[in-house]
């Protein structure tokens, strides 16, 4: 248990240092009036990539904090869903995990966007076939 605690604390410290050192990319141009749209798109892509990486690091830091709290509570190594013991190999591979393999998938399903439920409620349609009734380039 002490080994996992030290490993998690070290990972958390590294992540927090990276988050503190992270800088948001700024636009490379003084004015956007004479910029090519691709230059603006490149700047925006860089900014969004950095934001996504920082968000991932923040999520990882939260998972580590929850695992450290579980160690303090004495529940580390037990699945939070079913209470079964998490195999040592899984803990060594992903020390911040709080679920067994069987319940790890359920956690991912809970994170799915709500819109997916709405979209899957409608029967699938084949829009291409409907549009093709009016003609296609292969008929020329």
From TrEMBL:
Keywords: Metal-binding, Zinc, Zinc-finger. Residues 74-102 form the Zinc finger DksA/TraR C4-type domain. It comes from the Bacteria. The keyword Zinc-finger applies. Residues 19-42 are annotated as: Disordered. The keyword Cell inner membrane does not apply. A zinc finger (dksA C4-type) spans 79-103. SUPFAM superfamilies: DnaK suppressor protein DksA, alpha-hairpin domain, Glucocorticoid receptor-like (DNA-binding domain). Gene3D superfamilies: DksA, coiled-coil domain. It holds the Pfam family zf-dskA_traR. This is Zinc finger DksA/TraR C4-type domain-containing protein. It comes from Lysinibacillus piscis.
